[in-house]
Amino acid sequence: MSNLEIGVAGIAIALALIALRVPIGVALGLVSIIGISEMTSMHVAWGMISATPFDFAGTWELTAAPMFLFMGYLCTSTNMTQGLFHAMRLFMARLPGGLAVSSVMASAFFAAASGSSVATSAAMSRIAVPEMLKYRYDKGLATGTVAASGTLGSLIPPSVLLVLYGVYAQVSVGQLFMAGFIPGVLSALLYIAMIMVRTKLNPSLAGDAAVRSSAKEKWDAFRDIWPLPLLIGSVLGGIFLGIFSPTEAGAVGTTIAALIAFTRRTLTLRALREALISTAVSTASIFIILIGSLFFTRFLALSGVPAAFSELILGVSTETWWILLAVALIYLVLGMFIDSIGLLLLTLPLILPLVQGADLNLVWFGIIVVKLLEVGLVTPPIGLNVYVIKGALGKSVTLPEVFKGVSWFIVMDIVALLLIVLIPALSLFLPQLMF
Predict the structure, then answer these.
(1) What is the pLDDT of residues 14-37, one digit of tens each?
(2) Rounded CA gap, 371 and 148, in Å?
(3) Which residues contact 16 (CB under 8 A, 6 or more apart)?
(4) Which of 94, 234, 299, 330 is buried most, with the most CB atoms less than 10 Å from its CB?
């Protein structure tokens, strides 16, 4: 077999192993080691195993990922996010579909603090969905709102996906954070607009949740959630003003979160231990996938598959629309079956050479990729956020009801994606202003 044939066979085997539920990092690592030993020698493969993980894990920019994870888990374990939905409900309840709108807003803040789409969906499904169902909201609208809003954590900084993309593509994480802000807010506003229009046209979707609140209740609710806007604003403001780098921002954000929790007397040893353990588990999982992906990159580079793939795509057309369409199809199809982090690191070895060959802006392209990954989190048959919602709510809702409800939000995601593609300034304005 030629090197190219070994490379193509390796991709097929890796996808098959992933379909059989073999952990993505393990699948990519095994295929890469066997493939490299076949193309060169086992000595070369073992040399890669001994050197690559240590060198890559020591990358300075990569330290932002565990620090942002720690910041998010610390916010959760110290109850900093607990009153979000209640507060948003008081402020947004008068709008059409007020509880659903409140869920979008609360999820956006929660996602910005945690950086995790799955964590946002899991938390809000236990808080917001039962409240909406209590007021006779349509089950599809209630569950679809939370499932889709959880994906906002992928774009609204600080985002772990943006950190991983930046490190892998060698792009400024700070620029990516700034680039993701407007598209993330835009996605949230499109969700809210769709909810308001639908519930205005069909009031039965929103039940009878007529919530009245006094100025004192609103003030009390604001006092309960003020730490979160302060934390997010401090992290993003510090990056934007150049006070600290994105890598340092993770440590700064964690310190601010700990100080806020300490002043509120919620920073207990138990909360700290829970946050540390959760961070360690998540970081280890991400690093295993990262190292397996790095092996896979070396394997594909030796096989010549990325160059052949680029020639195949560019041979049809070199127009930007065609390249983006091809990339979108890859992510939307694979996103139905593979989680976002695994899919990102599985595809970048193939996609980046194509994008670099077409001379596309890597910051702008990174936002497009992460938006595509967001869509994959709610797309059937395996929308991860949908299954998180179903698992949290048990028999009170069915999978078809959740997928039906989330379909409206997928349409809004496609609208947002088209706007990001057609108006690059949505992604590039803040990075250009910052740098």
Answers:
(1) 889 888 888 888 888 899 889 988
(2) 12
(3) none
(4) 299
